[in-house]
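Lecture 7 notes. Example A: sequence first, then its structure tokens.
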Amino acid sequence: MTAGNAQIRLDTWLSPRAQMPTQDDWAITADVAHIIISHIAEKRPRLIMELGSGYSTLVIGYALQRAGSGKLVSVEHNKKFHERSVQHVRDHGLEDVVEVWHCPLMPCLKVRPQQVWYDIPLQKLASTIDLLIVDGPQSGLGPQIRYPSVPALCEIFSPDVTILVDDASRPDEKKIVQRWLAENPEFTHEFIATEKGTSILRRRA
């Protein structure tokens, strides 16, 4: 399927209640959106955590509403982007399934040597994480900036958690995924040749 056809299919499926935000270079592509939508429809995750908010936040919100269950917590460190995402969620009537949290970047105590990562109030989560979507922080903030995603959150992963990594064709993301696999041998890895590359990690059956 071409990128254009994938986007047309996505736009038709969404039938959004308000104007969708512009898909900038940081946004997920339509082929990744279809992977996420299919996963939600099949697995019915109770809690999804998304690192980095934006276009994808609305796609996931619509998918959860159609599934009839599940919640999304979208984490954003940039205050301006956070406020924009909160407004988009309101405009699209997704408040019942989506929360956007402002979580500034702070030194992550669970990573040695320490590097900055989201300061997420994990005690606020209502359940363990069934689907983690890693699409932030943006790469320009430092080398392997997304690495803490697994060590910082692994204690609250559900037994059958799925981890989806966007931009997985980039050298940094490849190194991060290999580090995670070396440190967590209970996970399998599938690479999908989407427009920007997608890595999917699952616990072994």
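Example B, a different protein, same format:
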Amino acid sequence: MKYGIITIFPEIFHTYLNMGILKRALQKGLIEVKVHNLRDYTTDKHRTVDDYPYGGGAGMVMKPEPFFTAVETLYPDATKRRVIMLSPAGKKFDQGTAMELSTENRRLLFLCGRYEAIDERVKTMVDNEISLGDYILTGGELPALVIIDAVSRLIHGVLGGNHSAETESFSWGILDYPHYTRPSVFRGLSVPEILLSGNHKEILRWRRKKALRLTLERRPELLGKCKLSDEDYKLISEIKEEL
């Protein structure tokens, strides 16, 4: 998977991308991330990337010229890039979007805005606008990192186990089950006996039931969006009787 990022704060990305899973994915060549400074594609001595808005109003607007110049200079073949603008007006990002992006053969190119907004004309070369949610951040850098992290985890070989990403929250449509590790008893709190039993069939059933219960209690709307088995419906009935 290949990513490109256009930003006025490239330093933001260096620390995060050089730690943990993403660092190993980069070292293995499983992902490629190129970070570009938007100011390198300005034409004035002050490397100006913003200006006052037409019509007045608060804040500054990012100019269109640097974005067009950067995209067309760095990635001139439009068929090999998928330009994504991080915007509160975009489609809300979720696991389904992450999975769809993980199958993309083109480079994912993120345009990170700052200030009040990006000039509307930049959208003429944008393929998708994506939002993390119904709140405002100071720039598009954090959303870009979130998307890169979420998408990269779905690339084969990035995570240690073959099924790690498949069994995480949202990947199977519902929330995750509780996890435990050693010691078996900590401050009087014990690991559920079923997890120590060695009965893998019952452990799987316990985990699925716990995941369904957590989803029912905290995110019930998810149950209407995922494919449930006959066994799931039986477990949900048991859960409702227990509540």
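Note on Example B: The beta strands are 2-7, 32-37, 50-51, 61-62, 81-92, 107-111, 117-118, 128-131, 185-186, 189-190. The CA atoms of residues 3 and 33 lie 5 Å apart.
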